Amino acid sequence: MMNSTNKPLGTTTADKDHTKVEEVVIVCACNRDITLDELREAYPERKKEILEKFLPDLNATFSNYEITSCLKKAHFLAQVGHESSEFLFTAEILKKGVDEKDVYDGYKGRGLVQLTWKKNYTAYGAAVKTDFLDANKVKLEEVKWATDSAGWYWRHAGSAHDIDLNPFGDQNDIVYISAAINGGFNGYEGKSTSRLKLLKNAVAALHVKACPQLDALFTAFPEAEKFDYGSYPLEKSNAYYVHDMSFAWGYWHDPKSTMEGVKKDSTQAKIGYSRYLELLEIHPSKSKLGRFGITRINMKKHAEKRVSELR
Fold this sequence. Notes:
Blueprint: E1 12-14, E2 21-23, H1 36-42, H2 48-64, H3 70-83, H4 118-128, H5 143-155, H6 166-170, H7 174-182, H8 195-205, H9 214-220, H10 243-253, H11 266-282, H12 296-309
Antiparallel strand pairs: 1-2
Helix pairs in contact: 1-8, 2-5, 3-8, 10-11, 11-12
């Protein structure tokens, strides 16, 4: 049961004559800096020295981009932790023989969320009044800009930079957040640095379940999953109302798909594809561009075919 008060939680200790009891109060990470110990618990695979280096800028990013609640912070840590392998990488490692000039119009992934494409470097640079183009692109690998750019993208996610992820963090909507950042569900579950595993770590590290605001939050959003890390169903996510996110849920779960990042599941694949087709009926997609290497018209054909085949 979640705690909805500020009463002490946790362990008690007694002295030798068993007459003195010390109460330990567990405080969530709302509206305060997180500590090095909390960050180490969230990212257990990373050395203390690396986390120490990022911590001041991480807390500054939380403040600058209003990532103030413990639940928002947990979701932020889950996403950037996966994208950067727990702060190990601030630049994309390209395949052997591939040059940066040949990918993403010359601007590979940099920063804790792996910002790509010249237009994104330009947009972020304009926001913080700093030049990240041409020879200056490597500045995004510096701790300050790598961290701050992740905060900027959190508030301006998606290809059109029109998605603010703060509300979805407070709704505990990891399905929507993952799709908004990744486009699909790469790295969603399974490995130790998956988005789902890192969210579980961060919720524990930041004492989210002790937050006095949670009861009110989940009352306001009854469709949200209350930390059931084995599910987070599409139907309870805001992604259920987005064409491409629903298709992606089906495509990634499809046993015949080569996409990686989730456990293959025919039932979930059918749910995603079926919802995509429903949304097309309700309000046809205005986008002409295909997604996931599939043309727009073939996305519909593919979904229809797989719905009829999946059991």
